[in-house]
Write a structure and sequence with these properties.
This is adenosine deaminase. The chain is built from 15 helices and 9 strands. The protein is of the alpha/beta class. The longest helix is centred in the C-terminal third of the chain and has 20 residues.
């Protein structure tokens, strides 16, 4: 029964350790030659890192093998797991298409190749046996030049059947030196009618209030309620939703204890700011979305009523969910119709 929406999942970090290990065994043994057995690889792949930069280095391991030829292999297994084990009805996959193009090509050739990547991901994401509504968020990157990031926005605008928004990722500490560029790029995206989110206020290095007016959702954003709660009324006024990914903050060293998130949820609920609970990098974390829900409940960070509010918020803020209602409401309507039909027959 598909019930949930996932708004923040990276394609590079979505591959679970076992699937990645099997791929390397068959096609790239040199990448796992230093591991004598799978358990060593899993420990390396999923263990916490000290900083966000160290954590993001793991993405390069997966990006190097996510090519035009291999993306259908990884996406099929991702969607199969998301449907069967996570009960997802809706999934937004985010990634930087430029980083899936061949490195030996020139910058302009790689830009031209990005459209093929988007099409391959889009077609591979539509599987009749696993009917999840999917869409892509294309990530600009803090290490890529302006020309490439602008081309990513153009690509999003030209492929609305596959792409629902743009993002900026790659390490939030690097935004400051190019802030005028990011504002210009987000202005450009909004002028084209492209929806926006962005990795900001994830760490203490990523607090950029000047970017907030250009975002429709906020990637992570936990430092707003933790350090800058005075910004919450404006976030609520703009109807911006925080994409909170609980396990991430332990894996990156951003938080030392999951219970620190209680203040995030309490202050956001009090201010009327919506939160969508997400996984970020389900493969790197070796977790699935229901596990994130269970963890928050187990540590009394939220209660069941608040969990339901977050689940409803995820559908309400989904960029490409095609229905007015979320699946539970649709299912309840279907069950009510069947019940009425049954009672009519009995009468």
């Amino acid at each position: 029964m598909a019930l949930y929406a996932e708004l923040h999942r990276h394609l590079g970090g979505s591959v679970v350790p076992r699937v990645l290990w099997r791929y390397f065994e068959r096609h790239a043994t040199d990448l796992i030659s230093r591991f004598s057995e799978y358990s060593e690889f899993e420990d390396f792949y999923t263990r916490p890192r000290n900083t966000l930069d160290e954590y993001l280095e793991l993405h390069t391991l997966v990006e190097s093998v996510q090519t035009v030829e291999t993306l259908p292999y990884f996406i099929y297994r991702l969607l199969r797991g998301a449907y069967i084990f996570e009960n997802l009805a809706y999934l937004e996959l985010r990634y930087t298409p430029y980083l899936r193009t061949p490195e030996h090509l020139s910058q302009n050739e790689r830009i031209d190749k990005m459209a093929e990547i988007v099409e391959v991901v889009g077609k591979a994401s539509h599987l009749p046996e696993y009917p999840i509504v999917t869409s892509q968020i294309l990530c600009m990157h803090s290490r890529l030049p302006f020309e490439v990031n602008r081309a990513i926005i153009d690509l999003a605008a030209q492929n609305r059947q596959y792409v629902c928004a743009v993002d900026v990722a790659g390490g939030d500490r690097y935004y400051a030196e190019r802030m005028d560029e990011w504002i210009s790029l987000y202005n450009y995206a909004r002028s084209l009618g492209v929806k926006t989110t962005g990795h900001v206020y994830e760490t203490t290095d990523g607090c950029y209030p000047q970017l907030l007016p250009y975002l429709m959702r906020i990637g992570h954003g936990i430092q707003i309620p933790l350090l800058y709660p005075e910004l919450l009324p404006e976030v609520a006024r703009r109807k911006q939703c925080l994409e909170v990914c609980p396990t991430t903050y332990l894996k990156t060293g951003t938080l030392q204890d999951i219970r620190q998130l209680k203040l995030v949820f309490d202050r956001c609920f009090a201010a009327g700011v919506d939160i969508a609970i997400c996984t970020d990098n389900a493969g790197l974390h070796n977790v699935r979305l229901p596990f994130e829900y269970e963890t928050l409940l187990t540590y009394d960070i939220i209660n069941f009523q608040q969990l339901q509010a977050c689940q409803e918020a995820a559908f309400r803020h989904a960029f490409a969910w095609p229905h007015q209602q979320h699946p539970v409401s649709l299912l309840n309507g279907l069950l009510n119709v069947e019940s009425e039909q049954f009672l009519a027959v009995q009468a």
